Amino acid sequence: MNIQLFFIMRCTLVPRIKGQVLSTVGVAVLVTMAHGALFNQKVTLTPIPFRLVGLALAIFLGFRDTASYVSEVRNSATSECFL
């Protein structure tokens, strides 16, 4: 297996999302270090909000996924990434 395939940046989204991923990791590290305490008060969360947000995201991503397939079919003949 050629390890250089992991470092090819042509036709990838990695350079565009690098900042967002790093900021999300930074926020996750801060939350982990806080151990659920906010302004010296313990914050308790139930799983219900996470389930509701997860359901909404699943529906939204399902529609987005379908739209991306339609867009890919339209643009695949002219894109240099598919050569």
From TrEMBL:
It is found in: Membrane. The chain crosses the membrane at residues 21-39, 45-63. GO terms for molecular function: chloride channel activity. Its main location: membrane. Keywords: Ion transport, Membrane, Transmembrane, Transmembrane helix, Transport. GO terms for cellular component: membrane. The keyword Ion transport applies. This is Uncharacterized protein. It comes from Skermanella aerolata. The lineage of its organism: Bacteria, Pseudomonadati, Pseudomonadota, Alphaproteobacteria, Rhodospirillales.
